[in-house]
């Protein structure tokens, strides 16, 4: 047990050390470290994947611009500094990247309006960004993990005692089934929703964990990207409403039941019906914002504590910064699991309300 605790502490210290290296690399000299710019750069998506220090891995750029155009993001290797900020141009001068948005250049340059926004044309961008690459990586990891467990069950039988990776996965699968699906969905109907609930739980959890690693193959903030959380929430919305029975839709479009006369119902319907219909979408919006806000906040707090050392430009501040960053990092391990659990539980709750039968 002591060895396990020591290993966990060493891993967390290593993670923090790499985070510090990244922060140090963010400044170009004494007095010019911009904490807000650095933090926003790391929580937003990017067209490259950070390794350590100033080292990056180029990702595929795929553009639709009078035909399919593809090249590596490392091709943006001609730096240009303007009043609005730095941007990079490809060697041939055709494209430029500014704040992670790709533009077609005008004679190798970007033109800006009075607000500092580029006015150049933007090609359709289908690039493999850091978040997309991280999502594909997590999908491969999940296929390998569950594929290995499935082969073990097939080889030794379902009734045999789990071993190795199988012994880690079985309690988690049973946890999703017994603590999330069964209590919130009709016990005769929960099995058809288990594939989605298991996928949502493990997909969110593994991406939360990858996001806590500040270097390759982590470093992306996928679950803190509102586009990702929106898609997950929309999937729950679609499954919920396509699963809705007569009782579910009756509560939405006839919330007052049949006991009241229609003359008394009409004024109340004018108020209640829009609220009930809006509630269909509000639940999914809450799912989307909750996951996005909690994960992004954790990344920002860790980087903010680490940045104190470089803002104050004094190693003495590490006495506060290092323990607090380490504490938040440990807390984020819990948050990573908790947010996956909450998203899956609320999804099961919404689905359960849609398939629940009327009680008399």
Describe the structure.
There is one protein chain. The protein has 2 domains: 60-127, no CATH class; 132-355, no CATH class. A hairpin with a 2-residue loop joins strand 7 (95-98) and strand 8. Helix 5 (194-211) runs antiparallel to helix 9. The protein has 360 residues and is α+β, with helices and mostly antiparallel strands. It is globular. It has a 4-stranded antiparallel sheet, with no helix packed on it. Mean pLDDT is 81; it is low at 14-31. It has 9 helices and 9 strands. It has helices spanning 2-26, 35-43, 130-156, 165-184, 194-211, 226-243, 246-253, 262-312, 318-355, and strands spanning 48-50, 56-58, 60-64, 68-72, 76-82, 85-90, 95-98, 101-104, 124-125. Helices cover 59% and strands 11% of the residues.
């Amino acid at each position: 047990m002591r060895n396990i605790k020591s290993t966990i502490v060493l891993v967390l210290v290593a993670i923090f050390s790499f985070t510090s290296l990244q922060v140090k690399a963010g400044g170009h000299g004494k007095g010019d470290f911009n904490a807000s710019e650095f933090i926003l750069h790391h929580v937003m998506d990017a067209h490259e994947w950070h390794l350590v220090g100033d080292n990056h891995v180029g990702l595929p750029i795929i553009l639709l611009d009078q035909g399919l155009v593809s090249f590596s993001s490392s091709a943006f290797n001609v730096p240009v500094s303007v009043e609005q900020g730095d941007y990079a141009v490809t060697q041939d001068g055709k494209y430029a990247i500014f704040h992670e948005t790709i533009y077609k250049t005008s004679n190798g340059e970007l033109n800006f309006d009075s607000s500092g926004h580029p006015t150049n044309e933007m090609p359709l961008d289908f690039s493999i960004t850091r978040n997309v690459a991280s999502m594909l990586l997590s999908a491969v990891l999940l296929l390998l993990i569950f594929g290995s467990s499935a082969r073990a069950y097939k080889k030794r039988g379902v009734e045999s005692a789990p071993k190795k990776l199988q012994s880690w996965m079985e309690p988690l699968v049973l946890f999703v089934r017994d603590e999330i699906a069964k209590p919130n969905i009709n016990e005769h109907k929960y099995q058809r929703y288990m594939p989605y609930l298991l996928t949502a739980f493990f997909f969110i959890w593994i991406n939360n964990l990858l996001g806590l690693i500040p270097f390759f193959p982590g470093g992306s903030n996928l679950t803190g990207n509102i586009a990702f959380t929106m898609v997950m929430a929309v999937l729950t919305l679609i499954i919920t409403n396509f699963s809705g029975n007569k009782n579910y839709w009756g509560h939405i479009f006839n919330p007052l039941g049949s006991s009241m006369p229609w003359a008394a119902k009409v004024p109340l319907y004018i108020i209640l019906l829009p609220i009930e219909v809006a509630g269909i979408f509000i639940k999914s919006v809450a799912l989307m914002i909750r996951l996005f806000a909690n994960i992004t906040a954790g990344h920002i707090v860790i980087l903010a504590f680490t940045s104190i050392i470089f803002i104050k430009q004094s190693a003495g501040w590490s006495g506060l910064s290092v323990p607090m960053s380490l504490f938040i990092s440990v807390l984020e391990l819990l948050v990573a699991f908790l947010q996956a659990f909450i998203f899956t539980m609320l999804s099961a709750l919404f689905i359960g309300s849609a398939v629940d039968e009327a009680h008399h």
